User: Fold these one by one.
Assistant:
Number 1:
Amino acid sequence: MKRFITGVFSCAAMSLMIGLCAPVANAKVVKVTLTAMESDVVIDNRGTKYAAWTYDGMIPGKLVRATVGDQIDVTLINPKTNKKSHSIDFHAAEVDMLNEFGSVRPGHNRHFVFKAGRAGVYMYHCASNPLAEHIARGMFGVIIIDPKRFSKAYPKPDREYVLVQSQFFPDADNVVDMVENRGWTHALINGKPFNFDPIHDGNSTRALMSKPGERVRIFFVNANINMPVSFHPVAGIWDRVYVNGNPDNVLKNVQTYGVPVAGASTFDLVSPAGRSTNNALIDHTMSAEMRGASTLLINVPGADPGMGKGDKILIR
Ligand code: CU
Ligand code: CU
């Protein structure tokens, strides 16, 4: 008992002094409702439609964001108009895969709660069979678990962007091709090849933006079926790489860093102050880069102040 009381008092005292013990009252409940949808989505900058399976009609699904200690309250809806069973597998959750992540038949829902225990950037995806098809058709997204505070090791960024890379298999029913890694024609970034790259795709009208010298934080998720990613900033060097997005796992001064299938990491880029520059954030694996895995980052004094903030962090 004495040890318990001592622990409580030391924690309270320390939290007053250096804020190490976050008060439990700060933890919040983050409600996430996802609806499985079997419907067409636009899959390139020209407006081509594709018979996708998605969460809420978007590739990737909505960005879920919470802070360490929060409770994530998840509801998955599989409308009775769907033909397939679907599910939700959050890589940030430490639960029972046969329970929380189990398949939900059309006309049914699933509800569960998990604790955001470890800071990082994580994939979520449908885990129903055949897994390759459910992911390749678009059932994936991102959950960021922020640490409770910024620190010297994990400074506050000026802008944040989420990029999700995936493989596009136009023959959407051909699971054998997906498993054998045949027939993929494009690398998608947030659902489209060259989504933010007007240099490589004349139909692309957008790019990521920052001001010279700003710290731009990229939350990068590899939602490919089979291909690891070699993430590289052309004309730049990653100032920091946080493996799995966790502030404890910091690397400095890195040219290219690998992101395994179904993995994610956080990448900080600080462009030179005092001059305008451009970077291309690419998968240096040529089969992916030339098929769409290239994103332009424009660093100019007049950068749109809203880009990389608020609802402009995960742009589709
Ligand atoms: Cu599914
Ligand atoms: Cu997974």
Number 2:
Amino acid sequence: PDITAADAPAGCPAAGPAPALFTWEFASDPYPAYAWLREHAPVHRTELPSGVEAWLVTRYTEARQALADGRLSKNPVHHSEAAHGKGKVGIPGERSANLMTHLLNIDPPDHTRLRRLVSKAFTPRRVAAFAPRVQELTDRLIDGFAERGEADLIHEFAFPLPIYAICDLLGVPREDQDDFRDWAGMMLRHTKAGQGGGPRGGVAKSVKKMRGYLAELIHRKRASLGATAEPDEDLISALIRASDHGEQLTENEAAAMAFILLFAGFETTVNLIGNGIYALLRHPAQRELLQKSIEAGDTELLATGVEELLRYDGPVELATWRFATEELTLGGQRIAVGDPVLVVLAAADRDPARFTEPDVLDLTRRDNQHLGYGHGIHYCLGAPLARLEGQTALATLLTRLPDIRLAAEPDDLRWRGGLIMRGLRSLPVEFTPD
Ligand code: HEM
């Protein structure tokens, strides 16, 4: 149902016209609608374009609270509509591919066990050692268009970088990585408005192929693993070997884990790079500040800057689905058992009750505990890798193409209309050839 001024709690200032949600106009700039919701209906029940009814949580305090609330399960079996086959939630093609056991779909104690095991393999140290490879990949991609003086930064840069990076980290042989690029491209192209990437044939097929490939790769690697770990062992081998109190991942769990790393780390990072560059190109003073600090060899502003870009226009607009396992009250609203709850990270991160001048991009912002990577037990496992890729991509681009500028009117840019993610379809730029 549409939201009306009547939804405003007593004592609120005149609400004005209710914003339309999930339209194309909303997709290009959802922030005014989120400001309205935060003020007038901070925990709001609405019908999503897929027909599923869900609660949207838009204030920072309630968003953080919901993300850490153990009564909100990640397991879709708790969805009240799941039994009627109405609730289209999760990864497209997931059900058929039997990928249900990944981290974003499970609760403790299973989640605790799997997260502990994967954390032994996917360590900050492994990510730090990967930095030279990310730099090499970044330079190679820029080499591909630097002489042309123009490029589409989504297609030629933000999209391939994370997919090649994760493939490399996992240990997918180079000669097979272009297949992943194609499958991932299919998934990205068909993210449909409001459906969280609804299960179209092509997407489901790509998911199935990726899954099948990873299962086979894991099987082969498991068979060929030696008795002791190699110092430069890939992440898949480390996942197979990881153990905790004598427990190890099963082959199926390792495959689901590799898949979720790919899935969770791909479109998110595409959008971090895409939205990040776009925001910088639209804020020349901030961009100049960053460029000067990079030139001076200072990495501090780059680090706080990438966090601010995540807060200001982050890749994950809504956290992934949660379902109430018991009745609870959130922001004064009664949430019934089985109700889906969607935490709107993009709205919480612009909450004036938490951030000073939240609509201003300030790369020097210090007090910046944004929710862009989530919060609580499902806090992003790949945050160190995302930071490495985001910082390397932005710094290298601004250094190699210092006069890079938008080659389109902002109003002509199109945003992908998926429910969970926020990102541009394309980002045309021009620059003096390198
Ligand atoms: C979880 C954001 C990159 C792997 C999450 C969550 C968020 C998030 C918001 C929590 C979702 C929820 O609670 O519903 C981001 C952003 C990224 C990024 C903004 C890029 C800028 C990555 C990368 C990887 C990754 C590069 C791995 C290669 C994961 C995994 C989870 C997760 C495995 C599930 C953790 C769990 O359930 O315990 N991410 N992510 N992410 N992310 Fe990321």
